[in-house]
Design brief:
Length: 702
């Protein structure tokens, strides 16, 4: 196919010449992502609002206005839409209806989820195929996609393979090293995405987790101190940008003080503007000052600062921030001075799609277009995932959706200049990051796959991951129980059968490093397996106390017998919501039983909190409490490399915590959040009080 006038290889080549300069400006010095002999991905400058670019003393004129002037209204609207491709679609050749639907509009990009990703070569081929298919779109100009994915690290990572990293709250726990660790985390995650052709990382999370009962942010946040979150979010974004991906700060104006998950319903922040300025807005103000060029909205209402509107059922209420002119234009644009691109959180989330905000039946194009009208008029630029895109029915949905938005522009419900303003921001974002030029789909796929395989999940990345995990492990209580001595009888309790493999790995690592003087006998009551060194001086019995699938206690006589003979019991506790902390919940009941049996036997009880750290307030009778900040991936055996470069991303935090408990190193992590006291309500539900049990900054060592 002959390139048209808007495909500009000369500009792309000129941008490539400036790669070293941009990496120097935006990078994290000494990043572990520099290595393994692989070539750096395409450059990414951390900037927006570019008109002309000077690289190596060469003036590169901006192509934004010429492209904008040649676009039809359909193309302009489509450029503001990023659909999700079919769940499970991993090869575009197997989904001809999807490929054809994508070609019908000049969409601004696509978003990939875990079900679209099966391995390094496959993901790279899919990204290439999507871009190549886009070159054949029915459009007057061909503009490469923003290929987006969530790469926060920790609990939210769309790449099953590669390096998980510790998660934001664990980074926040690394104290004096936190800023450098945040930048390096962004560099590693950004690089593992960008070498696959994923050029937008929906990270960092800039939410301040000021509500311990928050059901959706939690350990995805760096902490509850606005200044610290601001510093670390900007540092992580700097790392992402240095590695060739576009960072996206989320979720404006701040989702950290909500009690509802906006995926499931309407979340509200009950704060006035001054309160928001003192907390939620601090990281976003810092992001704007640092040069952020992509910010994602939150589907949360702020009734203290927003105006009420009439809703279709006759009631009144506030629009979510995504649809609020006050929050997006007056606060983000005018007060904070942001002129970069704004993208919605997914528009198919219940807080938008099923919240009775506009006329029309949910799941119809008319309803979605009415939502789009409010979103665009609020000052938002990109409509993320208004609907899935899988088959001919979905293709027809998008045909109608784009047509209806065009009609709204033609009828004056949305001003054409408002559309042009958003398209200009999207094109500028792409140009600033070297995406606007020709996408070369004929590059050597085999060489690029080999290069990507050398980067994703590399030894250097895993070394950095484990170092950060060890720096994050936080001890908040120790009544002489830690570190455990190298001889003795111990019980290690986990939640799932799969987690026992990670536990066995950690014990074997400790044995290799000589921390069990006479070796260790490991008996796994879950699998029935047993391994032992000659003359083992330590004995560890592994079992589970809870059936995660059934939500029931799983507590055997063999477990009770092992606890009766133990000198210490280590119990992994995993908390995702306050419901498992309620009096009488199966998980809490099982943990309290294990603690009672341990104390009756004269054994120490050690809590290993491996997700939300707030659950330490429930088990204050423990003799020691150790916090790891993440449970995701703890069911992956770190030694399983049978998948080669596509080996699953495991959990380093869990292993690091066990190493600390058995004296492998002295922990230095400090709490990035306050831990409040928990009281039981009349119905047994766990309520956080205003009294602080463990203060932010606490961290014991030994």
């Amino acid at each position: 196919m002959e390139p048209d006038k808007h495909r500009m290889p000369t500009r792309r080549q000129a941008l490539a010449l400036g790669a070293g300069m941009l990496a120097t400006l935006a990078g994290c010095g000494g990043s572990a992502s520099e290595g393994d002999g692989a070539q750096d991905p395409a450059p990414s400058g951390y900037r927006h609002g570019v008109s002309d670019v000077i690289i190596n003393d060469t003036l590169i004129p901006s192509e934004v206005e010429p492209i904008l002037a040649g676009m039809s209204l359909d193309e302009k609207i489509s450029q503001l839409i990023i659909p999700a491709i079919a769940r499970g679609a991993t090869n575009l050749d197997d989904h001809p209806e999807l490929a054809e639907a994508l070609r019908r509009h000049q969409f601004g990009g696509v978003i990939l989820f875990g079900s679209n990703i099966e391995g390094t070569g496959q993901t790279l081929r899919l990204a290439d195929a999507l871009q190549d298919n886009n070159l054949n779109a029915e459009a007057s100009t061909h503009i490469p996609y923003l290929v987006c994915a969530d790469g926060e690290g920790g609990v939210v990572l769309r790449l099953d393979m590669g390096t998980r990293m510790t998660g934001a709250m664990a980074v926040g726990a690394t104290g004096a090293s936190a800023q450098e660790n945040a930048c390096e985390t962004g560099a590693i995650l950004g690089r593992e995405l960008s070498v696959l052709g994923i050029n937008v990382d929906f990270a960092p999370v800039a939410d301040v987790n000021s509500n311990p009962a928050n059901p959706v942010i939690g350990v995805r946040s760096f902490g509850d101190d606005p200044a610290m979150v601001a510093e670390l979010a900007c540092a992580m974004a700097k790392g992402v940008s240095s590695s060739g991906a576009i960072p996206c700060f989320k979720h404006f104006p701040g989702h950290g003080d909500t009690g509802t998950d906006s995926h499931l319903g309407t979340a509200t922040v009950e704060k006035n503007l001054n309160e928001l300025r003192a907390c939620e807005l601090v990281p976003f103000a810092a992001a704007v000052k640092a040069g952020a060029d992509l910010i994602m909205t939150a589907h949360i209402t702020c009734p203290e600062i927003d105006e009420e509107v009439a809703l279709p059922d006759g009631s009144t209420g506030c629009y979510p921030a995504t649809m609020s002119h006050t929050i997006i234009t007056k606060i983000l644009r005018e007060e904070l001075g942001y002129d970069g691109a704004v993208i919605t959180d997914a528009l198919n989330m219940d807080a938008i799609a099923s919240a009775n905000l506009v006329e029309g039946s949910p799941d119809t194009a008319q309803h979605a277009a009415n939502i789009a009208e409010k979103v665009l008029n609020a000052g938002v630029d990109i409509l993320l995932q208004p609907h899935g895109l899988s088959d001919s029915w979905d293709a027809a949905f998008y045909d109608e959706y784009v047509d209806l938005i065009c009609q709204k522009v033609e009828e004056g419900a949305i001003d054409l200049e408002r559309i042009d303003q958003s398209v200009r921001r999207v094109l500028t974002l792409k140009e600033s990051h070297g995406i606007l030029g020709l996408y070369d789909c004929e590059r050597d796929a085999e060489a690029r796959t080999a290069s990507a395989q050398a980067i994703i999940g590399s030894g250097k990345h895993h070394e950095a991951e484990m170092r950060m995990a060890r720096e994050a492990i936080t001890v908040v209580k120790n009544e002489g129980a830690l570190p455990l001595v190298s001889s003795g009888s111990y019980v290690l309790l986990v939640r799932t059968p799969e987690e026992s493999s990670a536990a066995e790995h950690a014990l074997s690592q400790l044995e290799e490093h000589g921390l069990f003087g006479g070796g260790v006998l490991v008996r796994n009551l879950i699998t029935g397996g047993e391994r032992s060194s000659d003359d083992a001086s330590a004995r560890v019995t592994i079992d589970r106390y809870y059936d995660l699938d059934a939500g029931e206690i799983r507590y055997s006589d063999a477990l009770s017998s092992a606890i009766a003979e133990a000198s210490a019991v280590i119990c992994e506790t995993t908390t995702w919501s306050t419901s498992v902390l309620s009096e009488g919940s199966a998980q809490r009941t099982a943990i309290e039983r294990a603690m009672d049996e341990a104390h009756s036997a004269g054994a120490a009880f050690i809590q290993l909190s491996d997700n939300l750290p707030y659950d330490v307030a429930c088990y204050t009778d423990a003799d020691a409490q150790v916090i790891a900040y993440m449970s995701e991936g703890s069911d992956i055996d770190p030694t399983d490399r049978s998948h080669g470069s596509d080996a699953p991303a495991y959990n380093a935090n869990f292993t690091a915590a066990l190493e600390a408990i058995f004296g492998g190193y002295s922990p230095t992590g400090t709490l990035p959040v306050d831990i409040p006291v928990i009281e039981a309500a009349s119905d047994g539900a766990a309520n956080f009080t205003g009294e602080i049990l463990y203060e932010r900054g606490l961290g014991l060592t030994f």
